[in-house]
Amino acid sequence: MAKERSLSPEARSILSARLSRRSVLAGAGGLGAVGLLSACGGGGDSGSSDNSVRWGNWPLYLDFDEESKTYPTLVKFADQTGIDAQYFEDYNDNDEFFGKVQAQLKLGEDIGYDVVTPTDWMAARWMRLGYTQKFDLANIPNHGNILDSLKSPSYDPNRESSLTWQGIMAGFGWNTEKNPKGIRTLDDLFAPQNKGKIVVLTEMRDTIGVILLAQGVDITKVTEDQFMNAVDFMAQKISDGWIRGVKGNEYAEDLTSGDATAVIGWSGDMFILASENEGKFDFAIPESGGTISGDNLMIPSTASAAGKANGEKMINYYYDPVVAAEVAAYVNYVCPVKGAQAEMEKIAPELATSEYIFPTEKTSSRLNVFRSLTPDEETTWAEAFQKAQGN
Amino acid sequence: MRTALPKVRVPYLLLFPGFAFLFTFFILPIVNLAQTSTQTPISGGDTGQYEQTFAFGNYIDAFLENREQFARSFVYATLATIFALAIAYPLAYAIAFKSGKFKNILLVLVVAPFFTSFLLRTIAWKQILGEEGFLVPTLRNLHLLGPQTTITSTSVAVVAGMTYNFLPFMTLPLYASLERIDPRTIEASGDLYANGITTFRRVTVPLSMPGVVAGTLLTFIPAAGDYVNAAILGSPNTKMIGNVIESRYFKIVDYPTAAALSFTLMAAILILVTLYIRKAGTEELV
């Protein structure tokens, strides 16, 4: 992330052949697009029992051992506690997952999960609708290990019913051959060499967030006029042929295929690209600031008392710095647990200094959280953002 | 009379499974969709909460706001159908008449793409048409393509993807009707001093019309509603109505507009197909 510094520490960690999310992703081209048609994914349908916990999470978001086909940290948790931890990688999309379980949540019927992992804004919606349960903090002594910057989001100021699973930074990613000086501002992004080869994220809060910050707007207080103004800016850049696409994780393929030379992208993906093609890609938080969001561990209102208690024990386990470091070494997103950096020193020292996983104070101070929206805003703003991209 | 009654019942009994299936998986969803399409948001409700107010204006709003994507869907689908026909007709003709012992192998090759997922095949096209594929650098070397021009994220890529993806649907019905042509009719045409072109125009084409009609319908209908090709190979300027419906449903959580658009699309396809069959189908076939 630092200026003109090649990412050799990460590259070295690849050479050490520790399997991680990046190698899995490399073999699974078009992962994002697969989500398009996977709306009917199964899983999470097994019954609950007093001695089990069922966790629905995003794909490739937990350390996985290719040889034994198991999740090492989860196996350890099961061994330590005797709780049967069932893991389902079927949280592919916030809206899609919500659509799938909404009716059951409304009726108070078991949705098949005791722990779910929605992104901030979706977590806020679950809470507004009363679809979550408050934690029993006695079961989560590690609760206080959450990073200060993530401690009090507007939707859950005291973190009473949610804890961050991983943090996601959005900023600029670029091809270093085409952008030898790097990209720090919107002007750098919309430089002539990138015309028609810019891709921005489908996640409204990240793309428009980065644009708003560049326009000097505080995204923790953004108004509708300011938002629409930024959407118009994006629409103009699309119709003028600067932006070629608005995409999810697939922008990573566009960068590798050369179809895109600069993006507004996510830290975790850019980490993978930078590690695999040493020196060819880089990522930075814009000078004017980037966005940070999180996926949150929460307990649905439909979980049984036993399922809830087991879920809390599991959440507590993952907030142990030792375990958090093991997960972060695989997942490469921002680790939300205090003390994990010190633990990372022990297992993968080259990753302990990675700004992708442990942003420094200086970087963190430039990260902003998009304010939560009212239901009305959620609809009108999403509509404007979708229209700007031709939908 | 006593023996006649059960006979009357038998056809109904045989029809029952089909009707039950259609009722559950076609009629019920359609009714549900129709109900959703005239709903409006509950005031003060949360995202995705709607109530029935019989707001038929939804249809007008939905159509007027998305005229462009509707038009684009039908233009792309028409182009893909024409290209698919242009490619599939000679292909099916060759397989039916000229392939000899290779007939079965060629047929398997036509069907083979179905063995992989639709999605993966489309993603493969992204690589083929991409900057580091074979095609783009070659065209650049031949100066047929400017250094800044790309093929992916254009309407060319979307129509190409659709043509490719629906090609087997065009080829198989064409093959089936060409293969059924009695070779003696072609011989007879020659005996009556028709040359090759005249024979093709006056005998082969008319006899293959059922295949042409079936193939064009099987291509055009799914192509008009397709959103995968536009999503993967296109750009914001090539969005089709399927993309709008997807975004309305999943991203904006605006179920009524998504439902109204779906109905409008169904109606538009139905009208176009009816006109087409009236014109091409019955006159030529009967």
Task: Describe what this molecule looks like in 3D.
The complex is a heterodimer of chains A (391) and B (286). Chain A has 391 residues and is an alpha/beta fold. Chain A has two domains: 17-167 and 294-356, D-Maltodextrin-Binding Protein, domain 2 (3-Layer(aba) Sandwich); 168-292 and 368-388, Periplasmic binding protein-like II (D-Maltodextrin-Binding Protein, domain 2). Chain A has 17 helices and nine strands. In chain A, β1 (52-56), α4 and β2 (84-88) form a beta-alpha-beta unit. In chain A, α9 packs parallel to α17 (375-388). Chain B has one domain: MetI-like fold (Orthogonal Bundle). The longest helix of chain B has 34 residues, at 4-37. Chain B has helices at 4-37, 57-65, 67-98, 103-111, 118-129, 135-141, 155-179, 183-191, 196-225, 228-233, 241-251, 255-285; strands at residues 39-41, 50-52. By secondary structure, chain B is mainly α. At the A-B interface, α3, α5, β5 and α17 of A face α5, α10 and α11 of B. Chain B: InterPro entries: MetI-like, MetI-like_sf. Chain B: Belongs to the binding-protein-dependent transport system permease family. CysTW subfamily. Chain B: It is a multi-pass membrane protein.
